[in-house]
Hints:
heterodimer, A: alpha+beta, Aldehyde Oxidoreductase, domain 4, seven-stranded mixed β-sheet, B: alpha+beta, five-stranded antiparallel β-sheet, three-stranded parallel β-sheet, globular, binds flavin-adenine dinucleotide, binds iron/sulfur cluster, Ald_Oxase/xanthine_DH-like (chain A), Xanthine dehydrogenase YagR molybdenum-binding subunit (chain A)
Amino acid sequence: xxxxxxxxxxxxxxxxxxxKPTSRIDGPLKTTGTAPYAYERHDVVPNQAYGYVVASxxxxxxxxxxxxxxxxxxxxxxxxxxxxxxxxLGKGDRNAAPLLGGPEIDHYHQxxxxxxxxxxxxxRAAAQRIHVEYERAEGAFDLAHAxxxxxxxxxxxxxxKTVGDFAAAFDAAPVKLDETYTTPDQSHMMMExxxxxxAWQGDRLTVWTxxxxxxxxxxxxAKTLEMxxxxxxxxxxxxxxxFGGKLFLRADTLLAALGARxxxxxxxxxxxxxxxxxxxxxRPATIQRIRIGxxxxxxxxxxxxxxxxxxxxxxxxxxxxxxxxxxxxGANRLTGLRLAHLDLPEGNAMRAPGEAPGLMALEIAMDExxxxxxxxxxxxxxxxxxxxxxxxxxxxxxxxxxVQCLRTGxxxxxxxxxxxxxxxxxxxxWLVGIGMxxxxxxxxxxxxxxxVRLDNRGVVTVETDMTDIGTGSYTIIAQTxxxxxGVGLDxxxxxxxxxxxxxxAGSGGQWGANNSTAGxxxxxxxxxxxxxxxxxxxxxxxxxxxxxxxxxxxSGNRSVPLAQAAGEAGLSxxxxxxxxxxxxxxxxxxxxxxxxxVGVDAATAEVRVRRMLAVCAAGRILNxxxxxxxxxGAMTMGVGAALMEELAVDTRTGFFVxxxxxxxxxxxxxxxxxxxxxxxxxxxPMSSPMKAKGVGELGLCGVGAAIANAVYNATGLRVRDYPVxxxxxxxxxxxxx
Amino acid sequence: MRPFTYERAGxxxxxxxxxxxxxxxxxxxxxTNLLDLMKLEIETPAHLIDVNGLSxxxxxxxxxxxxxxxxxxxxxxxxxxxxxxxxxGLLSRALxxxxxxxxxxxxxxxxxxxxxxxxxxxxxxxxxCNKRQPGSGCAAxxxxxxxxAVIGGxxxxxxxHPSDMAVAMLALDATVETVRPDGATRAIPIADFHRLxxxxxxxxxxxxxxxxxxxxxxxxxxxxxxxxRKVRDRASYAFALVAVGAVVQPDGxxxxxxxxxxxxxxxxxxxxxxxxxxxxAVTTRLLAGAAxxxxxxxxxxxxxxxxxxxxxxxxx
Lengths: 737, 316
Ligand SMILES: Cc1cc2nc3c(=O)[nH]c(=O)nc-3n(C[C@H](O)[C@H](O)[C@H](O)COP(=O)(O)OP(=O)(O)OC[C@H]3O[C@@H](n4cnc5c(N)ncnc54)[C@H](O)[C@@H]3O)c2cc1C
Ligand code: SF4
């Protein structure tokens, strides 16, 4: 189905099932521990052996020699894979560095070997008996240093987006700000580590894995192994968190496949927690310079945002300026990305790449500007709202309720009671402050297909390679099919995460919900047609006059049970959603506002969040329950980003030092006292027949800055260097009395 | 993990003797620290002696009005004990500030005293670390040292001791009771139990090879107000940046011990004497000679400020 004109009224608008707060249909599997996660799939293939990864202990250089004899002779060992015996390997389109290193080493903890043994313990013990000699090479590991030395690269500046004359307008502006903000490297640290079981049948390979994007994984696995794509099958029905860390083929999958080939039997591999930070991808650190100029009336006249990040060869920059192109008005604009070469592990997408770190900076800058202008921070944002793409004023937004989000949030949170003067409110030990930030995340359209079958019991089965990374995909897809076919959720079966199914949008960039359900919608439209045709109901265009409800198909005074319509053989249909240039004609984005109250311990400067509110306008909310879970999870991640998460770089040797969950702190329950989420009523007919957009990343965007702004309100101390830890506040704290 | 043999000892003395007979043997109590380290091959004992069945999990009053805590008493039970909560509130609070409920259910009194550092380089076997591999160097010096020691460190090691419980034990003047492989017992004052790193950071206590902890004894209750303040980046389940344990008497005298600043829980007798003068005077004495790194220099003002807040709280 091609979607290139705004959606008219369609069966989804009935909202009998879609839009209802529905518990996860896969919930019982999870709460009873029976949802099959990759590493525990003992039943899918017999005779599984265990692989353990050996990772590089240098960041850059070469393997001079690698001695595997002792490991091979260790008890239970079946095979050892290194670059020496892995055969010729390609590199996936979406991998910056090879997943099996050697002889060249590109980053710390790059995999250099896999040991396969009868038991996990034997494999792990033998992995320590592999002796690798390295020749270390000099590398670049320090972003701040790289930024200083790289200078202005005219090639990179060519890509800058400019409108009007920023320099002149900034110069002339009576009120201005020119500040630099930094965000650190962050790790996804999802609960389930990367894990795969691989099995060969002749020249065909099946992997049971944990991956957000089935089609990408299959294509890159085939490419890396230099084998035909059709001979690779990827199965990933349940994923214990991904956050972008599982968007791509990673070492667990490749090494399981190589290990299985070498050992001649199925092999399972999980990355141990201490390897996750350096072996896989991470959100790269940024240094962001923001300049804003405004008139005394509070209107922005000039805005510039430049962001520096680093990456390996073939890696991309963190697109931290994206939101600045679209969020606020202003006639003179400049945004640009600067990429430095660094030999740290590959930087790549982590939940809301671009906007998450970008708003952490921009929304502090907006708070600072509001203060300089003596305007309320909420009003300052409202004053600078734009209903059109500022780079291209002919282009409207499909929907834009930023102002409504800000006003609703301010009212519900009690913003008017905030003392605008910093460091004035005290509650016992605590200095109390309130802060806010705008939330913004683009909505991405990408094609997505599905197959639906109707059987003679009236059961609708949906198959698509869409994934559920804990987001609730199973449930919203079931709701979509139920709505379309006029059946209850008990009559819908959803099968996901298998490359044998039609290719979907997958899970990433908050595009999963809208696109994958739109694909299911398209397939259901076809199935409805097939049903109607079989019953001879197909008169009017678009099946007007044919109703699917209560397990029946009705036309005029005829009514037939779906089960009967399906007949013994059943009916099946396959289709997908594809988009024309609709996203070009109007800008599709999601909007929100975050409000946070923090307490800062007057003596120790420990920052603790006291309450949080998010207001989101993100198209139709397909399931308010799972959407809320997404947003509160994202807000929690925002607390981590604001207050504690940082991969500490050892700039001498080039690795992330705190590479386990003792050293890389993420919020615990005690850090998250009270969260509230409000969804504004919205449907976006430009986004898809579902009229929905993404929301799972929006919930993160802006949270960090809202917290940093609240800390400022509590203490009068402006920290522009995340995370906002107590050591950055102590100097300015009032004396202890 | 390396292969190892395992035995269950019949008595404390037998356990100590077995340890002496098996070079490279280790006792295992709750296993919450040892097992993690064995999986990473930071600890590679060839033999494990399980001391869980030795009836060392009792608590009893001592004749002089103190409390004798068996080496195998679980952290949860110790923190919840009525006598501890009433008479040694500092200990109960310190325990509850540490780890998580699940871990405290397993963790033991002796194991807690002997838990090893959380220096991140100690945990990465690819990095030089004199504590893990004597003579290999110290990656933390000049590296990521935010968590590490500000005082008492050496050119060999700047690790901290991560225990909360031990800070309270030090402030309370506990005594560590042991039995040696030859069957002899001794009592080590807690202040002499943990060592500074010097040039042998791998030797962390005054225990001799094979020596088994049987109990930790607390003297008579001190009275006063007991406060334990653990400062950290998140609200729970994190090791201390700094911790202040204090017992303050109504007249302003008292004791103070610190966690998170040194290779051992930190207490200085002359500093205690300064308590009536306030946090600055105490901290000046406590941290005299401190040599922080640029990354952890914030711990010095943090100690003073935290102590100030503790003393204010004690005053009520
Ligand atoms: C995730 C995590 C978070 C934690 N957070 C904190 C925290 O915030 N604060 C804190 O203080 N602690 C914390 N801990 C550490 C925890 O307190 C220790 O792991 C625990 O106290 C160790 O006790 P155990 O009985 O399990 O010791 P084991 O692991 O069994 O043994 C530890 C050591 O003691 C030796 N040993 C044990 N018993 C004896 C004995 N009777 N005589 C001689 N030697 C003996 C063993 O040989 C071993 O070397 C944390 C641990 C984990 C895993
Ligand atoms: S500080 Fe101590 S524990 Fe840490 S690396 Fe240095 S020697 Fe090892």
